[in-house]
C-alpha cells in the first residue's frame, strides 16, 4: 500500500487541521452552511483530505509547497474562517504562533472557469487552498458545470487524470485512490481520465491541454483512448466553443515553460490541435497554416537549447541564453507557421492591420504585448535580417544602425528569421544554421550585440547648440547620423571632438581690413553626413510645401520661361505652406548651418536640393526672413564653384533678388529692419561677385566683376544714400558697407571718384557732424579706404577731401557735447586719413609741388590745423 511521509511543516499543519476539526465539533452551530447538504452527508463526520497535485508529487518524491485541502461538508471559506477563529484563541496562538491569519476568498465565477468558491491562505510557508468535495453536471453549450457537494468518489471521478484524483486522508494518514487506477498509472507513467475520455473532454475540453501539460511535465504517456478522443472533431469543436482564450494561454504557457516543450508541441501537432490552440477565434477560417515542416521547426529549437552542434552553440549563447529567452524561442516555434498568412483587411481606422501572426498571439492566445510586438517586428524586419545575414562583408555603421532599428529584441528577431527560413527549406537546415551563426559571430566581433542601447555622444540639446539652431523634431534623425559616425569611429569617444566636427568652422563674411583669402576646407566625415541628411530628409520635405520661386527650375537652374506667373497663393496662411516660418522655424537655423558647413563637392552634389529653399527664403515678403535669405545665400556662395554658377545660369537671379533687398529703406521699412537687411545684402552681393567672376592667378583684372560691382555701387549705395536723407543710422550702415565694396572694386573705384568724394567731404564738413560720432567714424573709414584703393588718382580731389577733414577737425574743437574719448578717437582717425592722403599726394610729382603751399595756407588761416597736419 502506498504511503506518504510528511515533513515537519506538513506534520504541524496536519495537527492544526485535526485540532480545528475537534474545535468545530465541540462548538455548537459553527459549521452551519448556506448550502443545503444531503441528509446522509449532513450526518457524516467532518473529514479533511489533501488532494490532487500535492498527493501526486509526494508519491513520486517531488517536494511541494502547495496543498489543496478538501472538506466533505463545509465550504472552503467556512472552514478557513474556523481556522482563523481557532488561531485567535489565547492558548492556541501560543502553540501555532501569534501572526494574524489573512484569508483571500475567490468567488465562484463560471464565466472564468472557476466553478466553486476557493479560499486561500498562507501558513507555515505553505500556499493552501480550501475547497469542498464536489460533483459537477455539464451542459453541451458550456464547460461551466452545475456544482454540488459530492462524495470523495464523485470528486475523484470529476478530475482530469487518475494521477490527480488521489487523496491523503489526514485522519487515517492513508492514500485513497477512489478511481482504483491512480497509483497504478503513476507507477507506469500513464496519463488517463478517470471516466470515459470523450465524456470527460466534452464536459471540460480544457482537460485536453491539461493532460498534455501533465504528460510532458512528468515524461508520461497519454493513453491511447484519451489520445483518440483528444484528436476527434467534436472535442476540438468543444475546445473552441467552451474554453476562453485566456485559459488556453495559461495552459500553453505552462507547457512551454515546462521541462519538455518539444514533446508538448509534438502532441499538439500529432493530435491535430494546432488550429484549435493557435487561431484567430474571430476568423478561424481566414488562413490554414502549412504544418508540413513544423516538426522541423520545434525540433530545431530543441537542438539549439541543448547545443547539439557548434552552430547551435553560437545561436544559443547569443539569442537563447536564459530561461526567458528559451520560452520566447518556443513561442517563436509555435507561431512561425502563421508568418506567411496573407495580410488582413485594414482596420476601421484605415490603418493597416498588424501581421496575422501578431493577431493570433493577441486575440487567439491573449499573450503579453511584449510578444505581440516581437511577432510584428520579426515580420517587418525579416527581409532586412536575411539581407544582412547573406552579405559577405558588413559595414559596422550600417549593421549597427540596423540593429538599433530592430531594437532590444533583435537577436530573437534573427532567431525568428532563421526558424522561418528552415521551415521554408528544411533540407538546407545546416547551411542556414551556419550562415546565421556566422552572422551573429560577426555582430559579436564588431561589439554590436548591444548596439540598440548605445548612447550618442551628443544629446539633442548639445547638437542644437553646436548647430546654432533651436531644438525640434529634426533632432531624432540627426542624432542617428551622429550615431552612425560613432559606429564607424568606435575609438573616438571624446564628446568635444564630436562637437568640433559638427560645429561650424566657417564664419559668415565680415568686412576686415586685411581679409584672409578664402580657403576651401574639406568637410569632416560627420559634418558631411549631417549636411546631406538635413538637406534631403529634414529640410526638403518642409520646403516642398512652399511654391518654388518662378525663376527656378526643379533642378536648381534658371528658368528661361520666368515670365510664367507664380501660383496664386493669396489667402493661404503661412503655417499651411511655409511651416519653416512658424511651427518649424528651427529649419532656418539648420539651413544656415548647412550653408556654412558645405564644401565644393557637397554643393555640387546637393545643388538641386539647396537652391529652392535658399531662394524661397530670400524671396519672402517678410524683411526679417529676407535677411535670413541674404545670410543663407552669402554662405552658400562662399562655397560655390564658379563654373556651377555659370552652368545653372543663376547669377542674374541672385543679383536681382539681392539688389532688391538694398531698397528696403525708411520710411516704408522700419529703420531697424532696414539696417539689418542692408548689413546682410551687401556682403552677399560681394560674395556673389567673387563666386561669379573669379580672377585666375594669371589675371589682375576682371571686367565682368568690375561691371557688376559698379552696378552695386550705383544701385545699392548711391541710391540708398540719397534716399536715406537725414536718417543717420541708415547712412552710417551704408558707409560701413561701402568699405568692403571699395576694397572689392580696387583701382576701378576711380570711375566714381567724382561722386564719392563729394559725398564723403560734405558728410565730414557737416556743421552738425560731431553730434553723430558713429556716422563720422564710418565716413572716415570710407575715406581712408577710398584714398587707399584710388591712390593713383586721389590727388585730383585733395582739395575736396581736405575740406571735409579740416572742417571736422575744427568743429571738434568747437563742439563741447562729445565725451573726451569720442573726440580723441575721431581726431586720431582724422590724422590717419590725412596721413594716407599726404602719402598719396607726395607720391605723385604733379601734385606734390603745390602740396606744401596748400597746407601752409590752411595753417596760416587757422593755427589749430597744424596738429592735424603734423606727421
Automatic annotation (TrEMBL):
Pfam families in the cross-refs: PolyA_pol, PolyA_pol_RNAbd, Tti2
Keyword Nucleotidyltransferase applies: no
Domain tRNA nucleotidyltransferase/poly(A) polymerase RNA and SrmB- binding: 219-278
Cited InterPro entries: ARM-like, ARM-type_fold, NT_sf, PolA_pol_head_dom, PolyA_RNA-bd, Tti2
UniProt keyword terms in alphabetical order: Nucleotide-binding, RNA-binding, Transferase
GO MF terms, alphabetically ordered: ATP:3'-cytidine-cytidine-tRNA adenylyltransferase activity; CC tRNA cytidylyltransferase activity; nucleotide binding; RNA binding
Entry superkingdom: Eukaryota
Coiled coil: none
Disordered: region residues: 506-525
Span of domain Poly A polymerase head: 50-192
GO cellular component, one term: mitochondrion
Keyword S-adenosyl-L-methionine: no
BP terms from Gene Ontology: tRNA 3'-terminal CCA addition
PANTHER family to which the protein is assigned, alphabetical: CCA TRNA NUCLEOTIDYLTRANSFERASE, MITOCHONDRIAL, TRNA-NUCLEOTIDYLTRANSFERASE
Protein family according to the UniProt entry: Belongs to the TTI2 family.
Protein name: Poly A polymerase C-terminal region-like protein
Species, as recorded: Microthyrium microscopicum
Amino acid at each position: 500500500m502506498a504511503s506518504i511521509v510528511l515533513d515537519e511543516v506538513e506534520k504541524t499543519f496536519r495537527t492544526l487541521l485535526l485540532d480545528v476539526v475537534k474545535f468545530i465539533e465541540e462548538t455548537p452551530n459553527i459549521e452551519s452552511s448556506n448550502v443545503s447538504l444531503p441528509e446522509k452527508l449532513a450526518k457524516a463526520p467532518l473529514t479533511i483530505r489533501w488532494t490532487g497535485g500535492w498527493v501526486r508529487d509526494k508519491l513520486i518524491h517531488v517536494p511541494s509547497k502547495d496543498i489543496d485541502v478538501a472538506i466533505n461538508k463545509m465550504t472552503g471559506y467556512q472552514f478557513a474562517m474556523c481556522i482563523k477563529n481557532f488561531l485567535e484563541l489565547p492558548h492556541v496562538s501560543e502553540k501555532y504562533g501569534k501572526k494574524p491569519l489573512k484569508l483571500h476568498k475567490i468567488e465562484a465565477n463560471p464565466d472564468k472557469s472557476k466553478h466553486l468558491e476557493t479560499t486561500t491562505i498562507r501558513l507555515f510557508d505553505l500556499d493552501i487552498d480550501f475547497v469542498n468535495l464536489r460533483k459537477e453536471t455539464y451542459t453541451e453549450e458550456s464547460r461551466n458545470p452545475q456544482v454540488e457537494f459530492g462524495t470523495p468518489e464523485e470528486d475523484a471521478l470529476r478530475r482530469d487524470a487518475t494521477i490527480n484524483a488521489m487523496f491523503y486522508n489526514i485522519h487515517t494518514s492513508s492514500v485513497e485512490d477512489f478511481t482504483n487506477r491512480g497509483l497504478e498509472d503513476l507507477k507506469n507513467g500513464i496519463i488517463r481520465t478517470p471516466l470515459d475520455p470523450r465524456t470527460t473532454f466534452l464536459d471540460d475540453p480544457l482537460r485536453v491541454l491539461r493532460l498534455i501539460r501533465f504528460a510532458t511535465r512528468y515524461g508520461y504517456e497519454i493513453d491511447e483512448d484519451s489520445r483518440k478522443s483528444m484528436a476527434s472533431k467534436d472535442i476540438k469543436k468543444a475546445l473552441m466553443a467552451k474554453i476562453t482564450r485566456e485559459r488556453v494561454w495559461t495552459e500553453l504557457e505552462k507547457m512551454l515553460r515546462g521541462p519538455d516543450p518539444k514533446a508538448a508541441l509534438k502532441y499538439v501537432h500529432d493530435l491535430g490541435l494546432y488550429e484549435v490552440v493557435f487561431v484567430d477565434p474571430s476568423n478561424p477560417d481566414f488562413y490554414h497554416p502549412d504544418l508540413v515542416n513544423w516538426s522541423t521547426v520545434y525540433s530545431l529549437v530543441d537542438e539549439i537549447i541543448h547545443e547539439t552542434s557548434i552552430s547551435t552553440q553560437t545561436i544559443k549563447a547569443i539569442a537563447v541564453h536564459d530561461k526567458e529567452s528559451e520560452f520566447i524561442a518556443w513561442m517563436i516555434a509555435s507561431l512561425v507557421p502563421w508568418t506567411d498568412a496573407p495580410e488582413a483587411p485594414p482596420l476601421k481606422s484605415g490603418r493597416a492591420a498588424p501581421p496575422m501572426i501578431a493577431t493570433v498571439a493577441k486575440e487567439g492566445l491573449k499573450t503579453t504585448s511584449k510578444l505581440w510586438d516581437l511577432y510584428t517586428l520579426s515580420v517587418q524586419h525579416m527581409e532586412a535580417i536575411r539581407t544582412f545575414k547573406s552579405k559577405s562583408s558588413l559595414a559596422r555603421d550600417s549593421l549597427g544602425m540596423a540593429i538599433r532599428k530592430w531594437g532590444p529584441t533583435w537577436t530573437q528577431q534573427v532567431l525568428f528569421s532563421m526558424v522561418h527560413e528552415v521551415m521554408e527549406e528544411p533540407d538546407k537546415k545546416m547551411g542556414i544554421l551556419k550562415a546565421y551563426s556566422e552572422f551573429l559571430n560577426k555582430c559579436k566581433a564588431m561589439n554590436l550585440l548591444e548596439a540598440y542601447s548605445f548612447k550618442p555622444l551628443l544629446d539633442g540639446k548639445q547638437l542644437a547648440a553646436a548647430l546654432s539652431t533651436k531644438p525640434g523634431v529634426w533632432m531624432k534623425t540627426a542624432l542617428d547620423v551622429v550615431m552612425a559616425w560613432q559606429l564607424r569611429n568606435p575609438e573616438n569617444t571624446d564628446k568635444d571632438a564630436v562637437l568640433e566636427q559638427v560645429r561650424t568652422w566657417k564664419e559668415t563674411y565680415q568686412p576686415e581690413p586685411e581679409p584672409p583669402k578664402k580657403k576651401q576646407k574639406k568637410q569632416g566625415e560627420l559634418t558631411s553626413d549631417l549636411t546631406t541628411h538635413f538637406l534631403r530628409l529634414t529640410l526638403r520635405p518642409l520646403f516642398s510645401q512652399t511654391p518654388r520661386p518662378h525663376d527656378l527650375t526643379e533642378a536648381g537652374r534658371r528658368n528661361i520661361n520666368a515670365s510664367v506667373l507664380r501660383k496664386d497663393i493669396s489667402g493661404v496662411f503661412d503655417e499651411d505652406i511655409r511651416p519653416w516660418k512658424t511651427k518649424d522655424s528651427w529649419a532656418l537655423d539648420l539651413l544656415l548651418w548647412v550653408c556654412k558647413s558645405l564644401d565644393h563637392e557637397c554643393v555640387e552634389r546637393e545643388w538641386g536640393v539647396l537652391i529652392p529653399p535658399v531662394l524661397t527664403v530670400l524671396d519672402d515678403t517678410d524683411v526679417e526672413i529676407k535677411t535670413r535669405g541674404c545670410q543663407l545665400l552669402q554662405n552658400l556662395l562662399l562655397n560655390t564653384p564658379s563654373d556651377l554658377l555659370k552652368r545653372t545660369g543663376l547669377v542674374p537671379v541672385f543679383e536681382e533678388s539681392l539688389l532688391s533687398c538694398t531698397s528696403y529703406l525708411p520710411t516704408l521699412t522700419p529703420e531697424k529692419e532696414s539696417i539689418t537687411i542692408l548689413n546682410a545684402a551687401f556682403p552677399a552681393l560681394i560674395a556673389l561677385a567673387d563666386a561669379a567672376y573669379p580672377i585666375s592667378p594669371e589675371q589682375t583684372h576682371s571686367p565682368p566683376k568690375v561691371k557688376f560691382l559698379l552696378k552695386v555701387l550705383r544701385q545699392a549705395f548711391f541710391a540708398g544714400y540719397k534716399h536715406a536723407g537725414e536718417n543717420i543710422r541708415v547712412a552710417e550702415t551704408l558707409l560701413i558697407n561701402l568699405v568692403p565694396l571699395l576694397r572689392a572694386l580696387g583701382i576701378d573705384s576711380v570711375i566714381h571718384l567724382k561722386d564719392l568724394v563729394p559725398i564723403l567731404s560734405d558728410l565730414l564738413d557737416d556743421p552738425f557732424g560731431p553730434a553723430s560720432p558713429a556716422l563720422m567714424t564710418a565716413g572716415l573709414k570710407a575715406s581712408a579706404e577710398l584714398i587707399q584703393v584710388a591712390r593713383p588718382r586721389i590727388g585730383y580731389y585733395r582739395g575736396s577731401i581736405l575740406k571735409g577733414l579740416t572742417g571736422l577737425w575744427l568743429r571738434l574743437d568747437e563742439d563741447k557735447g562729445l565725451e573726451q574719448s569720442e573726440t580723441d578717437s575721431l581726431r586720431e582717425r582724422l590724422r590717419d586719413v590725412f596721413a594716407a592722403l599726404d602719402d598719396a599726394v607726395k607720391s605723385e610729382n604733379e601734385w606734390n609741388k603745390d602740396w606744401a603751399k596748400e597746407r601752409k595756407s590752411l595753417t596760416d588761416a587757422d593755427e589749430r590745423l597744424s596738429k592735424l597736419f603734423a606727421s
